[in-house]
Design a protein that fits this description.
single chain, about 475 residues, mainly alpha, Glycosyltransferase, three-stranded antiparallel sheet, two-stranded antiparallel sheet, 13 helices, 13 strands, about 50% helix
Length: about 475
């Protein structure tokens, strides 16, 4: 089944025009998740999602490839994929489309149950952890000199905990909900104690995860905020509310410029790393910023704030913290979009130096585009009322349109299903560079961001 042609948007659209892309995404995204499910079903002896696929070449990677083959199992992808499947099952049960997705939802639910069970078994074997890279039996790999990730919580744990939490609620499994909640609480403690480690590596390259500077980054807190948004939407609670607001406060106070800070930063800029005194940390005179991470924070923060605001019993102090945080999110969105987006090749630069205003890593990964679409839609929804700023609304619609056009013109590869390339070079060429994991994104950055953007537009249109 071929997808509808991807519509292009004018650079200054109105809301009705932007909402006109919904039918394209409502057809495209189910094709992607059906492809993921079908690949899982095709090999009953392989208990993990298999998205090891060469998109430009439209072929599987060799099964015996130690990094790109299906037996190289990335905890990041399994946790992300589990959350993605849950959200798709819930979304497809509601989306209005010509095709019935009842059978697909049932297949998704079976994969969710199986993958949840597998990830729980992996944790039991590995002292409560899921690892960045594993063999198909769940045992960790430590190629390239990276330390074995047995003693610290890592990104793989966050993604796995998020997925298990979403799946447990989806299945209304109370014991599993408690276990996933305990997992999240333990990860939060490691964040606040600065004991968290990235533990990401690429074969043949050494990784210095013992560097204490690496634990004071914005990224782990930002990703964990996504888990708290899930929790806020499904059950809330004082711990969830306080932890999320505390993370937002930390990122805005320690990693974000509230005013111009020459020569280091301008208002709204966000930097990745701080020192032990929570001051911006320079490397060789550079203050490194990841525009995509910064914008991803905007989307996750907006989602979390909206979820806790709907809960009853919110204290006046927390309501003021929500108002103050929400007021800053447009600056963060627009500043980091301006820092990262290159209109000539239509992509967002991976990392930039805020001092010299030039690229550090000039590659253009795909994932920051749908993350920016989500953030723009959510900021638009937050500022769509009578007290909202017309200029904020116009800029959000423009940012969404520019990123949508870039995604479908520069990254989308036609076929069944239409998929996307991971990375382009600074001059716009498709390059064989792995952003983190060599898997096709299992509907996490791309599909989930767009689903949430469409939901935000629906909320704006409600009376």
């Amino acid at each position: 089944m071929n997808c509808l042609p991807a519509p292009e948007l004018p650079t200054r659209p109105d809301l009705a025009t932007v909402c006109g892309v919904a039918p394209f995404y409502e057809q495209w995204l189910p094709l992607v998740v059906e492809w993921i499910v079908a690949r899982f079903e095709a090999d009953p002896d392989h208990p993990f999602l298999d998205t090891k696929y060469d998109v430009p070449g439209r072929r599987d990677f060799a099964a015996d490839d130690p990094f790109r083959g299906k037996n190289a199992v990335f905890g990041w992808i399994q946790g992300r994929g589990l959350e993605s499947l849950v959200v798709h099952a819930e979304w497809l049960a509601q989306v209005q489309a010509a095709v019935s997705y009842r059978d697909l939802v049932g297949r998704i639910n079976r994969v969710v149950e199986s993958l949840s069970r597998t990830l729980c078994e992996v944790r039991e074997r590995n002292a409560g952890h899921v690892h960045f890279l594993m063999d198909r039996d769940g045992s960790p790999r430590s190629d390239g000199g990276a330390p074995a990730d047995r003693d610290h919580y890592s990104f793989a744990d966050i993604f796995c905990a998020k997925g298990l939490y979403a799946a447990a609620h989806h299945r209304a499994d109370e014991p599993a909900i408690r276990q996933a909640r305990d997992y999240l609480v333990a990860i939060a403690e490691s964040l606040w104690e600065f004991g968290f480690r990235s533990l990401q590596f690429k074969p043949g390259l050494p990784v210095s995860n013992d560097d204490p500077r690496l634990v004071r980054q914005e990224g782990p807190f930002m990703i964990f905020l996504g888990a708290l948004a899930l929790m806020a939407e499904r059950e809330g609670g004082a711990w969830c509310t306080e932890t999320g607001l505390r993370i937002i406060d930390r990122i805005l106070s320690c990693h974000t410029a509230s005013t111009d800070m020459p020569p280091l930063a301008r208002r709204g800029d966000m930097w990745e790393t701080v020192d032990e005194h929570d001051r911006p940390l320079l490397h060789d005179g550079r203050l490194q910023s990841d525009p995509g991470h910064s914008i991803e924070f905007v989307g996750l923060a907006s989602r979390f704030l909206r979820a806790i605001e709907r809960r009853e019993g919110l204290e006046a102090r927390d309501a003021e913290r929500i108002r103050a945080a929400r007021a800053r999110l447009p600056d963060v969105l627009f500043a980091n979009f301006e820092n990262g987006f290159r209109s000539d090749v239509e992509g967002i630069t991976k990392t930039v130096d805020l001092v010299r205003r030039d690229p550090v890593d000039p590659t253009l990964p795909w994932w920051s585009l749908p993350e920016t679409m989500r953030a723009a839609a959510q900021v638009l929804a937050d500022h769509s009322g009578l007290d909202g700023s017309a200029s904020v609304r116009e800029r959000c619609l423009s940012v969404f349109a520019v990123c949508h056009n870039a995604l479908v013109r520069r990254y989308l590869v036609p076929g069944n299903p239409p998929l996307w390339v991971q990375t382009r070079s600074a001059d716009g060429r498709i390059v064989d560079v792995v952003p983190a994991c060599p898997d096709v994104d299992p509907g996490y950055h791309t599909n989930l961001s767009i689903i949430e953007a469409l939901r935000s537009f629906d909320q704006i249109r409600l009376p």
